Amino acid sequence: MTQLRQRMSEDMQVRNFALNTQLSYLQQVSLFARYFGKSPDLLGREDIRTYQVYLTNEKKLAPGSIHTAIAALRFLYSVTLERDWAPEEVLPLPKKPQKLPIILSPEEVQQFLGCVLEVKHHAILTTCYAAGLRISEAVQLKTTDIDSQRMVVRVEQGKGQKDRYVMLSPKLLEILRDYWKVRRPVAWLFPGDRAGQPITRDAVGHACAKARDLSGLSKPVTPHSLRHAFAVHLLEAGADVRTIQLLLGHRSLATTAQYLRIATNKVCATSSPFELLPRPAPTLPPAAKPQYF
């Protein structure tokens, strides 16, 4: 490990960055240095601009991926290297397209979960939907996080390093109890293949893709799709946005409010003004005139 990499790592540690964020930032800076074949402290603003053009035009990365790379470089040059130029001006972020997720109906969720054949995979994917968890939160659940007395699930150190509680559905509790009787997990609720480690996100994603193929659904399905479905189905059932924000663990209410654009009872409840127009009387074509020439 180089001295610069060690220093950047320590800078992130003292700011208590999430481990995944630290690893991602270090990887992005490593790719940046490898592109030029030089240490980042020998590179400047023009090099960064060249790299941004490369990511956009040659690598053709999605705006979200470019955001991650730019965030890592901003931290490196503004915090670790303490450059005196404003990184926000030198490192502009590309505009992200505003896309709405494709939402599964309740019937499609049931059809999908019915095709998850392995008991552990069925339990964790059901948990993602029933509690609205991120996959990173679901894989980190411990057996002690299931509180059947209060009927809540404790999410420890979710995104943003925040604890929260979500509802424990009686149906989910029944599924988890049936799963526990078969597998008897001890520490991690969903243990992985490696001893002492939880199941990986990749393993859950693979199981999700397999079940989606078996289900015959035309819509894309990922573990995060189940979280989206949880939020929209709650909203359509009458839950208020503030409650959904707390359940999802969103920092901003504006993030949760985006689901208002998807919920059919919010978007489609109002009749189209076309329905107010009087029905036009049928117009008969004019009678054909005889032709003599």
Automatic annotation (TrEMBL):
Keyword rRNA-binding in annotation: no
Keyword Signal: no
One GO molecular-function entry: DNA binding
Tyr recombinase domain residues: 99-272
Keywords of the record: DNA integration, DNA recombination, DNA-binding
One annotated GO biological process: DNA recombination
Cross-referenced InterPro entries: CB, DNA_brk_join_enz, Integrase-like_cat_sf, Integrase_catalytic, Integrase_recombinase_N, Integrase_SAM-like_N, Tyrosine_recombinase_XerCD
Pfam families xrefs: Phage_int_SAM_4 (PF13495), Phage_integrase (PF00589)
Residues covered by the Core-binding (CB) domain: 1-81
Family statement: Belongs to the 'phage' integrase family.
Name this protein carries in UniProt: Site-specific recombinase XerD
Organism: Neomesorhizobium albiziae
